[in-house]
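USER: My hope is that you can spare some time for a protein that puzzles me. I am handing you a single protein, as its sequence and its fold in token form. Walk me, if you will, through where the backbone shape changes along the chain. The protein I mean follows directly.
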Amino acid sequence: MLLMKTDGTDRLGFLLHDTARLMRKRFEKRGSEYGLSAAQWRLLFRLVKEEGVAQARLAELLEIEPISVSRLLDRMEEGGWIERRKDKDDRRVRMVFPTPKGREAYGVVKGMAGEIYEEALAGLTEEERRCLIGGLERIAENLADGETGCSAPRTTSEGSGQ
């Protein structure tokens, strides 16, 4: 029988999962005042970063079924957060854009996300923060299996990580 090391790596999956869950809960709690679900916030963030993306591509980026994306978009469009337009080259394709209301909310929530990240990283030195981000980027690289695009890890020189 192979025993796992006792350096804490045997808890890695649980720690990653629990940390992501706790951050998601904190974000949902603070972001709920805008009337959007966590899934809708994720979609809005993608739209602002990749404006004019096709609905089918959004489903891929968010790793959810196209029908679920369509329903999310329906509710968001009714609320004035997004707009859909026909692609100029292929009228069967619907492109999705954030509205001014969506952009404004994105700016507010991006600031809120920064506050939540600061809460999560409280007590860590700048060096520990850099090491944490670098380690997580390496883990993502190790597990990516050739995936590219928005899921690809970013280097620390590419921005604040938001």
